[in-house]
Every structure is written in C-alpha cells, then in structure tokens.
Amino acid sequence: MIFFLKLLLAPALMAAATLAGRRWGPAVSGWLIGFPFISAPISLVMAVEQGPGFAARAAAGTLAGQACVCLFSLVYFWLAYRLAWWQCILLALAVYFACTAALNAFALPLLAAAGLLAALALLLPRILP
Predict the structure, then answer these.
(1) Where are the alpha helices (DSSP H) in 25-82?
(2) What residues contact residue 18 under an 8 Å CB cut-off, 6+ apart?
(3) If DSSP states are collapsed to H, E and C, what string results for 104-120?
(4) CB 67 within 8 A of CB 116
(5) Is 53 in contact with 61 (CB distance < 8 Å)?
(6) Rg of the chain on CA atoms, in Å
(7) What does the buried/exposed string (b/e) look like for 5-15 if buried means 16 or more CB atoms within 10 Å of the residue's CB?
(8) Cβ–Cβ under 8 Å, residues 110 and 118
(9) 1 against 49, higher pLDDT
(10) % of the chain surpassing 90 pLDDT
C-alpha cells in the first residue's frame, strides 16, 4: 500500500494543483504548490514508512533546500540585467550547488532551517530588482 502511495501521491497532487490552476488561475495553483499541499502528504508517508525522525530530517532538508532555491533566484535576477540568459543560469546554478554543498556539510536542525528560510523570504523582496 505504501509503495502505491509513494508512486501515485505526488503526481496526483501535482495534477490536482494543475487542474486548480486551469480552473481558477495560476495564482491558485502557485499557492497550492507553495503551501505544503504536496509535501505534507509525502512527509506523512515517509513518517509512516521510515519513522518520525527520518521525516523530521527530511523536512529540515527540504526547508534548507528552499533556501538554496531562493539564492538561485536572487543571483539569476541580479545577473539578468547584465549577462546572457545562459550565463545567468550557469552562475546561479553554481551558487545553488555551493549552497547545497554547504548545507549538506552542516545538517541544520528543523528550527534553524525554518529560520533561515523565513529570513530569506523576508529579505528577498527587499533586495530583488
């Protein structure tokens, strides 16, 4: 049963968010994807299968990974005014992978990862062009 949940849950939830976006617009699907509409049920399946400790570490990793996505976006936006698109992507990916490597070297606890992501979410709108 858990195998089928893992196999079908994420694609079914993505399809539901896509259909909601077609029905009510891209803002609705963006909110559904941004909130734990998709990740929460998957985390629940992981917790059932691997235990709550594993699910907590996975949640911290997910939050820390989102911080790297924020940095990718920031670098891409700032460079887009000066460089070609492919140069922006290469440099932003380099920052993303460096951030990911740093966060993998120092596994953040859940609260620290949430704090890092919250700080970036508050800071980015102020420094984006």
Answers:
(1) 26-34, 39-50, 52-79
(2) 29
(3) HHCCCCHHHHHHHHHHH
(4) yes
(5) no
(6) 17
(7) beeebeeebee
(8) no
(9) 49
(10) 39
Q: Which residue is listed with tokens 């993303």?
A: 96
Local structure of residue 36 (DSSP, 8 states): T
Q: What is the pTM of this model?
A: 0.71
Q: Write the CB contacts of 10 (distance below 8 Å, at least 6 apart in sequence).
A: 38, 42
Q: Quick check: 129 and 78 in contact, CB under 8 A?
A: yes
Residue appearing with tokens 């800071």: 123
**Both tokens assigned to 73:** 């976006």
* Distance in angstroms (rounded) separating the CA atoms of residues 39 and 9: 10
Query: How far apart, in whole angstroms, are the C-alpha atoms of residue 94 and residue 69?
Result: 12
Mean pLDDT across the chain: 87
* pLDDT tens, position by position, 48-75: 888 888 888 888 888 888 899 999 999 9
The type of residue at 23 is R
- Amino acid identity at 89: I
90-111: burial string, b at 16+ Cβ within 10 Å, e else? ebbeebbeebbeebeeeebebe
